[in-house]
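#struct-pred
JK: can someone run the complex with FE2/S2 (inorganic) cluster? inputs below
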Amino acid sequence: MRVEGLRGRLAEEGVVRLDTARGPYVARLAGGRPVVHGALCPHRGGPLEDAYLVEGMLICSWHRSTFRAGDGRAVYGPACADLDVVPARFDGDDLVVEWPEGPSGA
Ligand code: FES
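RT: done, structure tokens with the ligand placed:
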């Protein structure tokens, strides 16, 4: 999936919601690199657009579940499932999301 012009928008806004055929996701910058992850916390569905990004960790604002931004691994808090993190890169000013192959399509 390619999102045109998202690099500049992320630089301005920091966090952008992506409504995709696979559901809602969030794009954000982490150390200047794009991170794309599920929009809802695996714990109780907290909105991860509001998550804090601290030293490479995403912290849910509701109950503080903490996930590694690089791979979504749950490392602290009540979440018992990892966060879906999708490989993404910039191509010029565009964001390219590299969905894994699978039955969910899109
Ligand atoms: S909803 Fe995110 S930690 Fe509870």
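RT: quick notes.
The first helix runs from residue 6 to 13.
The chain has one domain: 2-97.
JK: thanks, will look after standup
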